[in-house]
Amino acid sequence: MLAERASFVVFFRGKHMMNKINELPVDVAYQSDKSNYVVIYADKKEEENLRKQLKKIKGYKGFAPSYLYDETRNF
Q1: What is the domain extent for residue 55?
Q2: Which CATH number is 48's domain given?
Q3: 61 vs 23: CA distance, rounded Å
Q4: Model's pTM, two decimal places?
Q5: Would you put residue 59 in left (φ > 0), alpha (ψ -120 to 50) or beta?
């Protein structure tokens, strides 16, 4: 069974945001403490639900698909 996964970039303010992101059903691929963003992997069908959950968190700045993600790979 193949899962359609996608890579997303989440921009935030404050260190407490990483604690909240770790509670979400995502895999953290990269975290930049200096630039305040994190690259995550999640199921494509959960994208809208993930956006809603992130908007409720204080310190959330933005959410965008990662341009480094290769859509031809499924795992």
Answers
A1: 5-62
A2: 3.30.70
A3: 18
A4: 0.82
A5: left
